[in-house]
Specification:
The protein is of the alpha/beta class. Helices cover about 55% and strands about 15% of the residues. The chain is built from 8 helices and 5 strands. A 5-stranded parallel sheet has the order 2-3-1-4-5, with helices on both faces. Helix 4 packs antiparallel against helix 5 (about 120-130). The chain starts with 11 loop residues before the first strand and ends with a helix. The relative contact order is 0.20. The structure holds thymidine-5'-diphosphate (TYD). The site of thymidine-5'-diphosphate has 12 residues, from helix 4.
Length: about 220
């Protein structure tokens, strides 16, 4: 059945994955398809997406940044997210836009819990406080071995990209666990393929999820 663009109204889609997995490229391709179909689409990235969020992003991940205390790091990501939800995501969903977001609360679970080792209860509580329990309708996980992702991301990265390989392996495994624990929300995409293939598959998943409605 041909997708009805109405099905995608008010749909919240997030893109997750490790470094260099192609999230930003995929998001741009999906937004272009959605706009070509005449949809009202809002894109955002985390941390960032608002004036405050972008300032927090550069304070945290700016060129000379080094790894902060893990709890401070957790709370900065959460503060940026709370502002993004209040200022951008909620209003966009309320007016019926399709929202595509590059990273969201699952990044915090993957990086600050699985990567850094902060307790899951702490991370869940902070995520709930930051999002007001707003959960994506669909989350696309771009899966790629960290060696390949870090190679693609290049050398001059922020402090997170300079974490050791074991950290990035924990993040990847953590994402896998999250996807397995909530299969109705997550779709895992093999990020070793070309951008065009990824965009075709991801768009198909978005349309299917919207047609099926809330899980
Ligand atoms: P970014 O340059 O956006 O990385 P990428 O291009 O891989 O998305 O930087 C975001 C970095 O912050 C990335 O290393 C993941 C990390 N991060 C967390 O650790 N926790 C979070 O909650 C978020 C949103 C990002």
């Amino acid at each position: 059945m041909a997708p009805s663009t109405g099905d995608l109204a008010g749909c919240f889609v997030t893109i997750e994955g490790g470094e260099g997995t192609g999230k930003t490229t995929l998001l741009a391709a999906l937004a272009e398809r959605a706009r070509a179909k005449g949809l009202d689409v809002v894109t955002c990235r985390e941390p960032g997406g608002t004036a405050l969020g972008e300032r927090l992003r550069s304070a945290l991940l700016g060129a000379d940044g080094s790894a902060p205390d893990p709890r401070a790091e957790l709370l900065v990501f959460a503060a940026a997210r709370a502002q993004l939800v209040a200022e951008v995501v909620r209003p966009a969903l309320d007016r019926g836009a399709l929202v595509l977001c590059d990273r969201y609360a699952d990044s915090t679970t993957a990086y600050q819990h699985y990567g850094r080792g902060l307790p899951r209860e702490t991370v869940d509580a902070v995520n709930a406080a930051a999002t007001g329990a707003l959960t994506p309708d669909l989350t696309l996980l771009l899966d790629l071995p960290p060696t390949e992702g870090l190679r693609r991301a290049g050398r001059a990265g922020d402090y997170m990209e300079r974490e050791d390989l074991a950290f990035h392996e924990r993040v990847r495994a953590g994402y896998g666990e999250l996807a397995r624990s909530e299969p109705e929300r997550w779709r895992v995409l093999d990020a070793s393929r070309g951008a065009g293939d990824m965009a075709d598959e991801a768009w198909g998943e978005i349309v299917r999820a919207a047609q099926l409605g809330p899980a």
